[in-house]
Every structure is written in structure tokens, then in C-alpha cells.
Design brief:
By secondary structure, this protein is of the alpha/beta class. The chain folds into 2 domains: about 5-140, Up-down Bundle (Four Helix Bundle (Hemerythrin (Met), subunit A)), CATH 1.20.120.420; about 140-350, Rossmann fold, CATH 3.40.50. The chain is built from 12 helices and 16 strands. It has a 7-stranded mixed beta sheet with strand order 6-5-4-7-10-15-16, with helices on both faces. A 4-stranded mixed beta sheet has the order 11-8-9-14, covered by helices on one side. Strand 5 (about 190-195), helix 8 (about 200-215) and strand 6 (about 220) form a beta-alpha-beta unit. Bound molecules: 5-S-methyl-1-O-phosphono-5-thio-D-ribulose (MRU). The site of 5-S-methyl-1-O-phosphono-5-thio-D-ribulose (MRU) has 17 residues, from helix 3 and strand 9. One of its GO terms (biological process) is L-methionine salvage from methylthioadenosine. Its EC number is 5.3.1.23.
Length: about 350
């Protein structure tokens, strides 16, 4: 993809470092208001992650890294190792904001490691590391966009789930990056996005993002996905990930697993697109992943208005795990793994 196409397809930035605060595009208000929330402390960043002001696995990792920089403004330490000790409680609070996406813990581990190799200049080292995490994510997304698009035959239709675009990353997106690159290369002829209830990331964010780029997309109810596949409109399901285990099992937004099952039944290919910061080789399989459960109120009301009879109980797990057997390709910036399993994952990511 040349520079002009990249610029055309890459205009939204959810995270802005302002030197004394982190500005986060408030995703709770999209698509009807484009407003940034200013976080001046690490606890405000943790709160923004918890409340979905910022969301998407890479974006919450990047935000947490900047949160550590903010926390460092409140401490005094002579060395990086001393600072790491002082900053641990703030890092623990950032890490606890959401449990499923491993990018959060990964980014905090990188910040901690940067401190341990720094001496008196640890404040600069921290800021450089947060910037590197953000810059590397953007580069990874652009590389994955090309690699994933190359797997898609010209004229194909694709279905995506949740929001995996610029809003969920440093920019460009993971699965949505593949869609951007695939449209630019004239490989993708039709784009469908599922609503992604109950928070409606697909309806509120994904189709808005694509509209900003001038990419034609059609919104479907989540429940329409199997019918969409059966009627031959899509050849690939392309999704992101919150955690990819050592055997290729993949946690992603609730509803991803049923898309993978339906795709296999209908001969539709299933692609997971995620940077290596989403790979967790320390977790052997998907059964071991903690699945976040959010407030049932997200299911019982819509935009603050109750839609379900009083007294009804709801269960709201917000991620599920797709077994690796249902995945045709995992695309990372380190390479494409076709039909992933423990052996092929180890070949690319080590143990
Ligand atoms: O609850 P969310 O909106 O943070 O969930 C996001 C997803 O599940 C995305 O698909 C995933 O983080 C990949 S984002 C590039």
C-alpha cells in the first residue's frame, strides 16, 4: 500500500499523548460525538480502560503504558529499579482494569523491563518505551494488513466482528487493517460488519470508521451471520484477538466462536489478525483464559433506557474462545500461521 493510500485509510487516532496528560477519544460517545477525555493520572487511565472510553486489546496496552508515565510524575527515585518498585501499585491497578486482553499485562511488563535497564535517566526511558509501544503497534498493523489481504482472493466478501480498527489500536487496525488493505488492493468487494451486541462495537464504531475512509460496508444483526454465509456473500470471516494461546486458541469478542463454527459449516475461511503483543505463550490453551464478565445492565438497557422487564436476570460474558481447529490463519507481524497448533505457534513465537 503506498503512502497516499495509507493516509487515506488511516485517519483516526484514539490515543494522544499531550506531554502532561493522555487524551483518549471517548468511544462511549461515538459515532455521534467526537470528544477526547483528558486523563491526568494513571488511575484516570485505569478508569477509562475499565469504562470503555478506550477499548480494543492493543489500545488498552498502549494507554496503560502512557498511564505508567503519568504515575511516574508522582514519585521520586534515584534508579530505574527503585522506580519500578514505587510504581508497582499503580501498575497493578492498571493491570486489573480488564482481565482478558493480554496486551495490557504485556505493555506493563515492557515498561517494567525498561525501568530495570535504566539508571538515573529512567524517566526518559519510560517515555521512550511508551512511545515505542505505540509506534511499533502501528507498524505491525500496516504489515499485517498486507499479509492478511494477500490471503484473500480478488472479488471476495468479508465479515468482521467487533471493532478492530484504528479505534482499537495505535492506528490502521488489525482485522480492519486487513480489510483496509484488501479494499485498497481490489481484493475485497463486499464488507459486512456484525452489530456486536451488547455494546455494539460493530454498529457504533466499525461501520463509522469505514465510512470515514469511504469504504462501503453493510451492517448486519449478529444473528444474520449464518444466513449471510449460507447465501454466499462472504468468503472470509476476519477478526481480531484479545489473547492467542500457545496452541492457537483465541479469545475475542463474544460471538466470535459462533462465527467460526458457522464459517466451518459453510466452507467460509476464518482469519485471526493480531500483533505479537496479543500472543500469550505462557497460557497453554483457551480453557485457561479469564473471560471478563461485565455488568448485566449492558444487556438490560440501551443507551441508559431499560428495555427488559424489571426482575429479569442476565449473564454478560464479553469474550469467548475459538478453538484453534476452527482457525484457517493467524496473521501477525511476525508471519502468517496457517491452521495453527502448538507446534506451528512454537515455530514462530518460541516457547
Ligand atoms: O471489549 P472490547 O471492545 O475491548 O473488545 C475488543 C475486541 O474483542 C477486539 O476484537 C480485540 O480487542 C481486537 S482489537 C484490535
Amino acid at each position: 500500500m503506498d503512502a497516499a493510500s495509507l493516509a487515506r485509510y488511516d485517519r483516526i487516532r484514539p490515543i494522544r499523548w499531550a506531554g502532561d496528560a493522555l487524551e483518549l477519544l471517548d468511544q462511549r460517545k461515538l459515532p455521534f460525538a467526537v470528544e477526547y477525555v483528558r486523563c491526568a493520572s494513571s488511575d484516570e487511565v485505569a478508569g477509562a480502560i475499565r469504562d470503555l472510553v478506550v477499548r480494543g486489546a492493543p489500545a488498552i496496552g498502549i494507554s496503560a503504558a502512557w498511564g505508567v508515565v503519568l504515575a511516574s510524575r508522582d514519585i521520586e527515585a534515584a534508579t530505574g529499579a527503585e522506580a519500578a518498585k514505587e510504581l508497582q501499585p499503580a501498575m497493578d491497578r492498571l493491570n486489573a482494569a480488564r482481565p482478558t486482553a493480554v496486551n495490557l499485562a504485556w505493555a506493563l511488563a515492557r515498561m517494567r523491563a525498561a525501568l530495570h535497564v535504566a539508571s538515573a535517566g529512567w524517566r526518559d526511558a519510560l517515555e521512550r518505551e511508551a512511545q515505542a509501544i505505540e509506534t511499533e503497534d502501528l507498524a505491525a498493523n500496516r504489515a499485517m494488513g498486507q499479509a492478511g489481504a494477500a490471503l484473500i482472493a480478488p472479488g471476495s466478501g468479508v465479515l468482521t466482528h467487533c471493532n478492530t480498527g484504528s479505534l482499537a489500536t495505535a492506528g490502521f487496525g488489525t482485522a480492519l487493517g486487513v480489510i483496509r488493505a484488501g479494499v485498497a488492493a481490489d481484493r475485497i468487494a463486499r464488507v459486512f460488519a456484525g452489530e456486536t451486541r451488547p455494546w455494539n462495537q460493530g454498529a457504533r464504531l466499525t461501520v463509522w470508521e469505514l465510512q470515514q475512509d469511504g469504504i462501503d460496508a453493510t451492517l448486519i444483526a449478529d444473528a444474520a451471520a449464518s444466513h449471510l454465509m449460507k447465501t454466499g456473500r462472504v468468503q472470509w470471516v476476519v477478526v481480531g484477538a484479545d489473547r492467542i494461546c500457545a496452541n492457537g486458541d483465541t479469545a475475542n469478542k463474544i460471538g466470535t466462536y459462533q462465527l467460526a463454527l458457522a464459517a466451518r459449516h459453510h466452507g467460509v475461511k476464518f482469519m485471526v489478525v493480531a500483533p505479537s503483543s496479543t500472543v500469550d505463550m505462557a497460557t497453554a490453551s483457551g480453557d485457561l483464559i479469564e473471560i471478563e464478565e461485565r455488568d448485566p445492565a449492558e444487556l438490560l438497557s440501551h443507551r441508559g433506557e431499560r428495555t427488559v422487564a424489571e426482575g429479569v436476570r442476565a449473564w454478560n460474558p464479553v469474550f469467548d474462545v475459538t478453538p484453534h481447529e476452527l482457525i484457517d490463519a493467524i496473521v501477525t507481524e511476525k508471519g502468517v500461521i496457517e491452521r495453527p497448533d502448538a507446534t506451528s505457534m512454537r515455530t514462530v513465537f518460541g516457547s
